[in-house]
Write a structure and sequence with these properties.
The complex is a heterodimer of chains A (312) and B (138). Chain A has 312 residues and is mainly α. Chain A is 55% helix and 4% strand. Chain A has 2 domains: 112 residues, no CATH class; 182 residues, no CATH class. Chain A starts with 5 loop residues before the first helix and ends with a helix. In chain A, 57% of the residues are buried. The radius of gyration of chain B is 18 Å and the shape is flat. Classes of the chains: A mainly alpha (312), B alpha+beta (138). Chains A and B meet through helix 4, helix 5, strand 1, helix 9 and helix 10 of A and helix 1, helix 2, helix 3 and helix 4 of B.
Amino acid sequence: MRHWNRRQFLGWGGKAGLIGICSGPLWTALLAGCKTTEIIAGMGQSVGVLDERQAQSVIRAGGAVARSFEDITPEQEYYIGRTVGAVILSKYTPYQNDEANRYVNMVGTLAGLASDRPETFGGYHFLILDSEEINAFAAPGGLIFVTRGMLRCCGSEDAVAAVLAHEVGHVQHQHGLQAIKKSRVTSALTILAAEGAKTLGGQELAQLTEVFEESVSDVVSTLVANGYSRASEREADRAAVTVLARLGYDSAALVDMLEIMGARLTPGGSDFAKTHPSPQSRIADIRPLLPKTRPAAVAPRQRRFEQVLRQV
Amino acid sequence: MSTPRTMSVQVKTGQIRSTPSFLGAIVAEAPYAQQVQVLEEKSGWMRVSVPGRNVQGWMHGSALSAKRIVLQAGADDVQKAATTGEIALAGKGFNKQVEDQYRAQNKDVDFTWIDRMQKSSASMTQLRQFAKDGQLNM
């Protein structure tokens, strides 16, 4: 079974279409009533690398207990997110401007706190990527990356907040975790059961690490190549509009930003154009959610935005 | 849905506040997997007490899990976690050991900036000032 490792990721241009649609409950599993030894005997050497068919057979043998991706604990989500972030940073260079990064962290952290999931295992953290590309990524658990190209599509702090709140929305709804194939989850649980109460042995650790790497690849290839479903994007936009309203930002700034983005994106490009529905279709989805009147611009807010991000 | 009586802290460091708001003063911290008793729920916040400690206050619901999180899992716990999902195991599955193994195998993937990102966070005081200056609600 193919999965993306870092090297493939680095050369991903043009290769898409690996993962299926990332909707629906994952983690349909597993193992009810089985003894560890039986599981392992049944799985032989292939524990770490179940394909979908094998996974289904394990599920059947185990008596199919319905599980969901929510069974990935926030602690495990945290470790998946760290590596997803590190892999993303192997393609992009951080933008080393402390003031701009601090500012983006202020706006983004407020967006996180105002969301329906203000607390994650390791919290929300934001970093600007030194890239002209128009893009943003949310790794599971709250590590969020936004390019300079994306920030240049923002004409106000409210628009920056809109971009970051959209990414927070993906974290809140765990869209990244939902991209992980069911078979990985089955494998991880199988190894967990085999591991028992003891510390991971060499072979189990190797197998679990392989499943981990594949899970990270599932998420990364969704973030950089395939994109989420339109339903997930709509969910993230809806979450963003809610967060903006709670904070007192002008939620219509999301539309402003999308309009600028729509004018700048290259159709068929390798950035947001590749992984997101068109800005026009997102605007059409968002408009009905916006309040009738826009709040007046707030002068000190606009001043600090221009001061910090004008040169970005 | 009724509020479970006992919940577990599912974040690295849980913060217990004096009021149901991130503006509330932190009265105590509760570590990962700490079990708390839920006394009351109010728009996403839970008023909790910590057994064995004279501590009461508010935690946001997203910091808490209805599942019992087991720190030192026995064989039965592992079986239960793998089959029913009723409990969760701290430190099991994808953990630091797995990350370390991944890093040993992928030496060109650099975690320096990830660590740096996670180390720096704005304080509530800074956030409050930032919100106030920008005429935002918090």
